[in-house]
Amino acid sequence: MQTAKEYISQSRKAVEQLIDSINYYDKILNEGVIVSPFFADHGTDEPYLNWLSENQDLINKAKEKLKSYVGSDFSREALSGALLQIVYQGIKLYQEPVKSEIIPREIKEGLNNNINDIKKCWFGRIETDWEFPIGAIVYATRNQFNHFEEAKLKNKFTSFVIERISNKDSSIKHRLKEKKPVGYYVIQKLEWCDIYQFDKDFKELLGVTS
Predict the structure, then answer these.
(1) N- to C-terminal Cα distance for the chain?
(2) What is the pTM of this model?
(3) Residue 210 within a domain
(4) Contact in structure between 39 and 93 (CB atoms under 8 Å)
(5) CB contact at 8 A, 129 and 168
(6) Which residue in 147, 137, 143, 142 sits closest to 180, CA to CA?
(7) Does some domain include residue 54?
(8) Packing angle between helix 195-205 and helix 134-146, nearest 10 degrees?
(9) For residue 38, what pLDDT is reported?
(10) CB 73 within 8 A of CB 33
């Protein structure tokens, strides 16, 4: 089996392309979509019908841009999910579960001491706002991407982490209500759209020191 250092090296090109693509969709989505209030249903209101007739081309273009926006949002999430999977797989392959004593008591209590999953990913720096190590955040967010359409996440640890994160981040809470993936928002929080920050964290997560 390849070493953790080789895993990082051999996945580097894919990581770079994923981050470049995420940033590309960022640019598209940050352009925004303008929707006129006239899109509301005004029935047979004459000013509305006149505006509708005069601006049909503009309306069609706006509708197409809106469709593109929705597609770009999911594409960005799919790319983010792929990046999270690379990191998750690396942790799975090259890290041994931590000892139970490492896990804070409040986390154990929150999980009713079912800590087998969290022991496998309690690695990396602590994300101070969310109060979890980034390995645990990656594990949970990767699982959420794979099951985002479910009303309630079945994996207890994943549900526990995602719920606590969403209580501290309104954007993530909103997307969960809409049954959408949240991976991109996690990647933004971890500053992984910057390849240098990603590299630093990736090495630490896999225990690579040089």
Answers:
(1) 19
(2) 0.79
(3) no
(4) no
(5) yes
(6) 147
(7) yes
(8) 100
(9) 47
(10) no
Query: Measured between alpha carbons, how far is residue 116 from residues 109, 161, 174 in Å?
Result: 13, 14, 29
Q: Let me know if residue 109 belongs to a domain.
A: yes
| d(C-alpha 147, C-alpha 98), whole Å | 26
Q: Please, what is the Cα angle at 204 between 198 and 207, to 5 degrees?
A: 140
Structure tokens at 127: 């994300």
- pLDDT value at position 113? 82
Strand ranges (E), 14-141 = 126-127, 132-133
CB 159 within 8 A of CB 123: no
Structure tokens at 144: 């959420």
- The dihedrals phi and psi of 127, each to the nearest 5 degrees, come to -80, 110
Given a contact cutoff of 8 angstroms between Cβ atoms, the answer to whether 153 and 140 are in contact is: no
Averaged over successive runs of 10 residues, the pLDDT of the chain (210 residues) comes to 90 95 83 51 59 63 54 86 95 92 90 87 93 94 89 85 92 90 94 94 91
Report the distance separating Cα 142 and Cα 149, nearest Å: 13
Q: Decide if 129 contacts 167 (C-beta within 8 A).
A: no
Q: Which amino acid is at 102?
A: I
* Domains of the chain: total: 1
What pLDDT does residue 187 have? 95
Q: Residues near 60 by Cβ (< 8 Å), separated by ≥ 6?
A: none
DSSP helix/strand/coil, 126: strand
Report DSSP state, residue 40.
Answer: S
